Structures are given as structure tokens and as C-alpha cells.
Amino acid sequence: MEECPVDCIYEGDRMLYIQPDECVECARCEPVCPQISIYHHDDLPEESKAYERINAEFFTDLGSPGGARKVGRTGADHPDVA
């Protein structure tokens, strides 16, 4: 999460989420992701497509707060992850 220059990686209870409206697609997070689960949306493997929806829906209520450090750990996850 420290790699993100715009602080758009938010911490849920069991998963991290990237705020798509805040992300500048610099790809600095990709090589440091321990799960190897961050992809540019054009390169997303078919078996991971559901996570694109899950990630976007996570921000339905949270919106675009302008930085994960302002919010801190949300303590919640998308229902499909929880």
C-alpha cells in the first residue's frame, strides 16, 4: 500500500480494494502485491473477472474519499468476500 502514489488502496476486513476513480494506473502496486492479484483491467484473467465487479461495488457506499489514509481500515468487505 505504501507503493501507491495516490493512496487509492483501501483496506477491507479480509481484502484490499483499489478505488478505480482514484487510481492513476501507474502499476507500482503490481510487482509488490503478495497475492499477484493486481492487473490492468485489459489484462485481467478470465477467472478473476468477478473481482473487478466486487472491487467496484465495494466503493458504492464508500465513494471516492480521496485517500485510504483518511479512511483507515474499513472493517468491512464486499458481501461476496465476507
UniProtKB/TrEMBL annotation:
Keywords: 3Fe-4S, 4Fe-4S, Electron transport, Iron, Iron-sulfur, Metal-binding, Repeat, Transport. Ferredoxins are iron-sulfur proteins that transfer electrons in a wide variety of metabolic reactions. It comes from Nocardioides simplex (Arthrobacter simplex). Binds 1 [3Fe-4S] cluster. Its cofactor is [3Fe-4S] cluster; [4Fe-4S] cluster. InterPro entries: 4Fe4S_Fe-S-bd, 4Fe4S_Fe_S_CS, 7Fe_ferredoxin, FdxA_Actino. Residues 14-43 form the 4Fe-4S ferredoxin-type domain. This is Ferredoxin. NCBIfam families: FdxA_Actino (NF045480). GO terms for molecular function: 3 iron, 4 sulfur cluster binding; 4 iron, 4 sulfur cluster binding; electron transfer activity; metal ion binding.
